[in-house]
Design a protein that fits this description.
- This protein has one domain.
- 29% of the residues lie in helices and 12% in strands.
- It is of the alpha+beta class and 85 residues long.
- A hairpin with an 8-residue loop joins strand 1 and strand 2.
- Strands 1-2-3 form a three-stranded antiparallel β-sheet, with helices on one face.
Length: 85
C-alpha cells in the first residue's frame, strides 16, 4: 500500500473518531478529525472554535451557536481517493 493510500485511510479513521464528543463537549474537527482545537474561552464562553491542524474554524457572536454549528457538521461527507491495484 502506498503512502497516499495510508494517509487517506488515516484521514477516514480520524474523521469518524472525531464524531465522538471529547470531554469538553466538542466534536473533533469536521474536516480532518483532529482534536487539537483552539478556542477563545472555556466552557460555554467560546464564540469561535478553530482547528490548529487544518485551520478550519467556526465563529459567531453567540457562543452557544458556535458550539452547535461545530458539533452539527457532517463528518461523513469527505472524499477518499484510495487507488487499489
Amino acid at each position: 500500500m502506498k503512502d497516499r493510500e495510508l494517509n487517506q485511510i488515516k484521514l477516514a479513521l480520524a474523521v469518524f473518531a472525531g464524531a465522538v464528543l471529547d470531554r469538553d463537549g466538542y466534536c473533533g474537527c469536521p474536516k480532518c478529525g483532529s482534536r487539537n482545537l483552539l478556542h477563545d474561552g472555556s466552557s460555554l464562553d467560546d464564540s469561535h472554535l478553530l482547528c490548529s491542524d487544518c485551520w478550519y474554524g467556526i465563529g459567531t457572536s453567540d457562543p452557544y451557536v458556535a458550539i452547535y454549528l461545530w458539533n452539527k457538521e457532517d463528518r461523513t461527507a469527505f472524499q477518499l481517493e484510495i487507488q487499489f491495484e
